[in-house]
Structures are given as structure tokens and as C-alpha cells.
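FAQ
Q: What does a multi-component entry look like?
A: The components come first, one per line:
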Amino acid sequence: MTYETASELLSQNGQSQVLKFWDRLNADERDALLAQIERLDFDSLSRMQNLMANPPAPEGGNPEAPNVVEWTPELYAEAKAVGERELRAGHVAVLVVAGGQGSRLGYDGPKGCYSIGPVSGASLFYFHARKIVALSRKFGVRIPFYVMTSEVNNAATVKHFEENDYFGIDKRDVIFFIQGLWPALDQQGKIILDQPGHIFMSPDGHGGTLTALLKNGCLEDMERRGIREVFYFQVDNPMVEIANPAFIGLHTLRNADISLKLCAKRDPYEKVGMVVVRGDRFGMVEYSELTDEQANRRTETGDLYFKYGSVAIHIFSLDFMKLEANKAMPLHIAHKKIPVCQDDGTVVKPSSNNGCKFEKFIFDVLPDAKTVLNVAFDRNEEFSPVKNAEGEDSPETCRRDLQAKWARWFVAAGMATPTVPLEIDPAYAMDAEDLAAKGILLRD
Ligand code: UTP
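Then the predicted structure of the entire assembly, as C-alpha cells:
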């Protein structure tokens, strides 16, 4: 792109300020800025400005709680058999979203590289990847692992996998793909420069997964490999039961477009999304979108009516993903402190919010889904995310929960409750049953 084209494009879109330092830039800085301008998506930009000018009213209406499947031993066994067939047939792919900035944890690197193993110090990625190794071995099949990164953390993520020999997965089955970046806008809807020759950009949210899969050829790659179901999860939860056969199986049996694992909320106001139904359409609401009456409503048995929260453990059918990848998803706005380059070229980090970042959320595909399956799960078994540096949902609580889970497996396998720090490689045992099968070895 030439300076003239960039200048015209920006002026047509009311963004000429992007070139205001042009005369001061050297040749490399000019090339880099032109490359950034070339990648700007002006359609999304005008949607962002519209959103700032006309924030949408909350949907309101009369949301109802969805049906949620609670496992019975019979249903579990039936679904497990179907899921195992799907896995063995090579129909299942695994996808982790790991492009976030991890600002609450405050770790200087991709969150997936964070050391969480209570004994080994192994990373979050290790625990995910080793489960895929276990599944591949058990079902004698290659399971592709798609890892969504951002431009900011892609190189470090790939390096971490390389240094660890892809944790035992065949390198050809680990596919990194980079999510999109969006500019931030100031209160007047203008693109913000954080250096004289650089537009401030941030990841477009986990909802950017679908566009990124499409743009990077991953949906085609899945199709070529014969994939039908994609297991989706977030990088910060090492307790996740990746591609659990019963979950995969029930998704298949119900012919669902999307399946969600839901867990009982800690309290009526826990900050998790909730699946709701409005008429014949599903959706997700934040805790803040429910009235006090709705949040505290009880059923006849005394349970919360909106009992379950979503923690972003999903299965998508590939056909549904392909359909959604071509649609423009809704945008969400977040008011943030964004570094700004002043007229004299110095950069100021503001102390209060001065601009807006925009994100897409993956659950915004829900209203388009014809069949949605919600399955209840026990958070003690499958969910303990690393979000904060300390306190709730921190490395400390996560290590504690991992060890408590492994200790339960020991007891279930007929061994004493461990009294020393404990860690189990997921490729050695994926669950209590696996460990029990190896228990003889352990006791010898
Ligand atoms: P969070 O919303 O918890 O964000 O992301 P985060 O970046 O990990 O942490 P904070 O909020 O800055 O402290 C949930 C999941 O979605 C991924 C994250 O990597 C995490 O797995 N994510 C989030 C993306 O992949 N891209 C994004 O743009 C945002």
C-alpha cells in the first residue's frame, strides 16, 4: 500500500490522524505503519463507532433456564460408547484458545506456558497436550490440536512447544493459528496511536476464533482430516477433561450444533455466563443482566432457577462452525486505559479509562444454533482456572484442586491418601479408572 492510498482511505473513513507523525518516521517505521493500515478492517471500524454511539439495550424479556442433562450411569455408559467410536474413527479435533493477554495473572509470557505442575513445574500446555497424547494412544488415532494464539504471544508459544518436543504429540498434529487484532478507539471514535508510527492493537476476543480458523485454512484442514466434532476449551484450566468420550458421545447422539458443560454457580451473583432460552433461541447472559428477582429465584426443590454457569467448555459440530465463521458476530465494548502518543511524540499511560477496546465472544453463536446440548458437570472434578495472581482462581487454588483430584484417584484405586506432594502425568492416567488399572504397578 502506498502513502497516497493509505491517506485517501483514512480520510474517507475520518481517520487521517493516523498519519499525523508521517514526516517524522524513518523508512522502516513508514513501511510498518502502512502494513498496519492495510490490515485495518474499516467495516468493523464503523460497527465499533456505531456501538459507541448507540449502546444496545440489554435484551431483557423473559429469559428461561434451559434443560440441563444430569448424567445417570445408563446415559453415561451409552454416550461413552458412542463417543469412543467417534474418537476411534478420527472424527474429533481439539481446540484451545490461548490468545488472551492474561493481564490479571500478570505473567510475562503466554499464559499457557505458566508453570502449574505442583511437583514438575510443568506448564498449562503440558497438561493439555499430555491428555491428547493419552487419547491418541488409547484410541489409536491422530487427534489434531489447534492452538489459537495472538501476534503478541505466537512466537513464544511455538517456541515452548518446540523446546518440549511437542509434549509427545506428532508435530504435524499441532496447528498454531493467530487470531485477529483490532484497533482501540478514543471517545471520539478515532483510532489511537501508541507510538508515532504505530496503531495500538489488541486481540479481537475469543469470538475471533471462528474468523481466525477460516482465514488460516484450519476449517479446511479439519475437513480434510475427516473431523466432525471440535472440542473447545480455554488455556487456563488444567482440570479440563479434554474430549471426554461421554460428552462427545451425547453431542453426537443429540446431533447438537453446540454443546456446553455447565456447573452449579457458587452463589446467585457468581461472575459467570448463564445459558438462557428466549422463545426458541438460546443465548448467554452475564450475571449483571439478571434482575435480583431472577438471580435469586428458586425452584420448588430450593435450587436456584438459574443454577448453572458456563465456563467455556464446548463441543462444536464442524458444520456449524463453518456456517458461523462466515457471519459477522456482535461486538462488545470495554472501556480501558490505553497508552496514547501525544502531539510531541511522547507516550502517556493514562490513569483513567480513555478509550474503548472491542471484542467478540464465542457464545454469541448460540442464538443461531438449532440444537444446543447442556450437560452438568462437577466443578471439583473439571474446573479450577488460573485467572488471578492470588486469591480465588489463582495458581495456588489450582494446584490445590489438581492435587485433591489426583488424591481421590489414589483412594479410588485402593491406595492410601497421599501425604506427599503429588502429580500425575495425564498420559500415564487420565482418570481414576486408568490409575486403578495401573495400581498393581504402583503397589509393587
Ligand atoms: P479471559 O477472558 O480470562 O482473558 O480469557 P485472559 O486474557 O486469559 O486474562 P485477563 O482477562 O487479561 O486477565 C479466557 C480464555 O480466552 C482466551 C484466553 O487466552 C483464555 O484462554 N482469549 C481471550 C483468547 O484466546 N483471545 C482473546 O482475545 C481473549
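Q: Is there any commentary attached?
A: Sometimes. For this entry: The CA atoms of residues 91 and 227 lie 4 Å apart.
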